[in-house]
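Please annotate this fold before class:
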Amino acid sequence: MLRRLKAGPRLELDERSRQWKLTLLRKATVFRDLSHYEMEQIERSTTMTTCRRGRVFYGPGDQGEVLFILKDGRVQISRMTEDGRKLATAILEPGAIFGEMPMLSQHMQDSTAEALDDCLICVMSRHDLEAMIRTNPQVALNIIHDLASRVRNLESRLEVQALQSVSERLAATLLRLAGDSQEIAGASHQQIGEAIGASRETVTRTLGDFRSRGLIDLARALITIRDRAGLEELSHQDLDS
C-alpha cells in the first residue's frame, strides 16, 4: 500500500543508472522545458520503484505526502459512486502524474489509483515538490496544464456517456485502448465496464456481439480488432445523428 511507496532515503546510483533515471524523468510532462541542472536536482530528490499489475497505490481514506510520476505502464484513477459503483475517471499513460497535491486541490482520499500493467513509478515527497515549485514556477504550470487536460478528457467522456449507447461507448473505448495497435492486452471486462459506466456482464455480452459481427476477436486477456472502420463508424454513430 501507500506507506510502502513513500519517498525513501536517496540511494547513491552509479553514473549509468543516474543517466537512465534522468532520461526517464525527462519524459514526464511535468518536467518539460527544465534545464539540465534542474533535472539533476529532481533526480536527486526522487526514488524509483517497480509495481506489479493490480497494485493499489492508494484508496479512499488514505493520506500521504507523495506525488507519483508514471514512467512505464498504465494506472487507472477511479471513484465510487453514491450507489456503490466504481467509475474510472482516468487511465494514465507514461509521463502522467498523480497523488497528493493539496496546493492544487488534488487529494488521494478522493479516489483510488490502481496499476493496470506492471509499472515503473517515480516517487517524490510533498516537501520536495513544494520546494521545487517555489524555485521553479514552471513546474506548477506544467502540473496545472496536465490536470486541466485530464479534466477536459473526463468532461468529454461524461458527454459521450450521456449521448451514446453502451455499444457506441464500448467501441470508442476499444479504439482508445488499442491506439495504433490492433490488440488490447490485459484489460478485463470489469475494468472496461468501469471506464464506460456499464456492468461487467453488459460488457461481456456486448463484446460477444462485436465478435459475432466480425468487429473483434476475443481470447484470454486479449482483444484483437478485426474491423477498425466498423468500430469507428459505430463509435460516432449517435454523435453524428
